[in-house]
Hints:
Strand order of the largest sheet: 2-1-3-4-5
Low-confidence stretches: none
Number of strands: 11
Oligomer: single chain
Mean pLDDT: 87
Shape: elongated
Number of domains: 2
CATH topology of the largest domain: Rossmann fold
Order of helices and strands: EHEHEHEHEHEEEEHHHEE
Helix content: 40-55%
Distance between the termini: 25 Å
Strand content: 15-25%
Largest sheet: 5 strands, parallel
CATH superfamily of the largest domain: Response regulator
Amino acid sequence: MKILIIEDDLKIASFIKKGLNEEGFIVDTAQDGEEGLYLCEQYKYDLILLDWMLPKLNGRQVCNSLREKKIVTPILMLTAKNSVEDRIAGLECGADDYLGKPFVFLELVARVKSLLRRSSYQFIETLKLDSLEVNITKRLVTRSSKPIVLTAKEFDILVYMLLNQDCIITHTQLQEKLWGINECTSSNVINVFIHHLRHKIDTQDEKPLIHTVRGSGYKMNV
Length: 222
């Protein structure tokens, strides 16, 4: 899943991004309210971490604008403002939760996962297709009960494809969903990942599940 951090303190943003990456999330960052608002309008995120005190547009203005534009992505407001009045103001502008600074990273992760479960995104623990089974929470993959070892990016690609079974998945979709906007990758790189994934998933003893749709992308089905 993809998260946007809108935070002008580079040390805090870097710390949060590194930790969320280790938790398996794809993370983009913005350093001011205008940039954050622009990214939210251009890309689809599963959750937004929004600092209250930002240059150009503050967190409350960003939050209000997003809700006015009918962007319902869950928002976790991060701020050093900890009074009851400030918490109420943050929630009234459209934020879904509020976490005061300084915070323990484990609590941040817990809040993030809680919001994702509560949001319109339907949290699914296990995905299955034919004899392939993927446990998203434990990041375990098996086929015919045999464990399959995947890299982090291979796992993310597989989960995305399983969530979009029978749909054509383009290179652009994979780029936008599984690589951050600050990461540039080519179609050739994506093709290599798919090749490695197919080699591990579609063995000679199993029915092919990953299919190439010539000129369009890929499709995952039986």
